[in-house]
Give the backbone structure.
Amino acid sequence: MTEVYIFSGFLGSGKTSLLTHAIRQAKEEGLKPGVIMNELGQLAFDSAAVDGDVPLREILDGCICCTGSEKTEAQVQALLHEQVDIIFIETTGAAHPVEALDSIHSPLFGDALDIRGIVTVADGRRWLGRNSMSPQVRMLFLEQIRHASVILLNKSDLLTDAERSSSAAEMQAMNPEAPILETVNGKVPLDYLRKVAKGGRRAPVQQAAIGKQLPISSRLVSMDEPVEREAFEAWVKSLPDTIYRMKGYVRLEGHRYPSLFQYAYGMVQWIPESMNMPGNLVIIGENPGALEVPGNSHV
Ligand SMILES: Nc1nc2c(ncn2[C@@H]2O[C@H](COP(=O)(O)OP(=O)(O)OP(=O)(O)O)[C@@H](O)[C@H]2O)c(=O)[nH]1
């Protein structure tokens, strides 16, 4: 049977970081991993994090929970044909984990799949700031924690000892059965996940089809002009709290190529690239269409 793990967690919490780490460990253990990656935008941005030799299927531009289970079934089928030993499904940060789980509980697979459950990556700082999220979005964030088989309290490097223990205790109260592990960059031993993730649904779903009603959308912006780093970061800081995530390639003034830019819950990261990547930025949040974006010359 092929083990299946669903990686859940809010936008920018560290799912891709967990995925790259899990893939590396699976390979080291002699397992053949396969990946299904679900992204909100049309751009398969995170796919670059998956090595070329790992079978990868993408479900783009919509949540796995809303695009219909046929698409997911087809992608799982394709991975099974490639005889993978373990499948990691990275859901979008806007996906309801139980709906994602349901989409792979298909009679098509019979006993070919051993669905081990939901690993939820929770951004510790976002947990502390959860009350500033809009109600529907906060509900999704909490649902991801409530239905986890295992919770990773990630970005624990950004929390104090007191914040780490109070966050873990509060999450445990919300989901008493899931083991909680404090992590940095989603680094968790794969053996641990394989031991503790037992699959199955743990609590009634609070609100069905939450992903369909969520006010979250994504916008792809072409970044055709270089930006000044400080001014760009000041613009990022000025954005409303309801802009949850940005990622893409942005050219900084004085740089030859666009740098990889990441934004998640107040944190900005720039990684210089040595190749000329197309200047594109994905913005995810509530009403990203209303923003004027520096570096984009189009109206
Ligand atoms: N300081 C710190 N940063 C982290 C940690 N984990 C992830 N990050 C950073 O957070 C950002 C988002 O990480 P990803 O792994 O891409 O998050 P994600 O959940 O896959 O994001 P989406 O797929 O867009 O929802 C990146 O800039 C990471 O480098 C952590 O433990 N500590």
